[in-house]
Amino acid sequence: MEMDTIKYQFKICTGCSFFCTKEEAVEFCPYCGEKLINKCPTCKANIKTPHGNYCTQCGNLYPGRATKNKK
After folding, report:
1. DSSP class of residue 16?
2. Rounded distance, CA 69 to CA 2, Å?
3. Taking the mean position of all CA atoms in its chain, how far away is CA 69?
4. How many other C-beta atoms can be found within 10 angstroms of the C-beta atom of residue 8?
5. Among candidates 43, 1, 36, 48, which has minimal Cα distance to 61?
6. 14-49 residues labelled b (16+ CB within 10 A) or e (exposed)
7. Using one digit for the tens of pLDDT, what is the confidence trace for 26-53?
8. Is pLDDT of 65 > 50?
């Protein structure tokens, strides 16, 4: 399955693990107050896996995410 066929796109918090769909009218995290992002800051790809630490297109770490999982 290609990534473009995934229906949902997400916003993720750069300060904690909160996420929501891109369509929701939420710009800041309701738990920690950090700004939500909906695109990879490096390659500008849409975020399609809200639980991931790394961009599925370029492999770069999302801001505020743990680095211990990457091999």
Report:
1. S
2. 24
3. 16
4. 12
5. 43
6. bbeebbbeeeeeeeebeeeebebbeebeeeeebbbe
7. 999 999 999 999 999 999 999 998 888 9
8. yes
The first and second tokens of residue 50, run together, are 């809200």
Average pLDDT over residues 46-69: 87
With contact defined as beta carbons under 8 Å apart, do 52 and 27 qualify? no
User: What phi and psi, each to the nearest 5 degrees, are found at residue 56?
Assistant: -80, -10
The CA-based angle 40-45-49, given to 5 degrees, is 75
Q: Give the single-character DSSP code of 67.
A: S
pTM (whole model) above 0.90: no
Q: Is 3 helix (H, G, I), strand (E, B) or coil?
A: helix
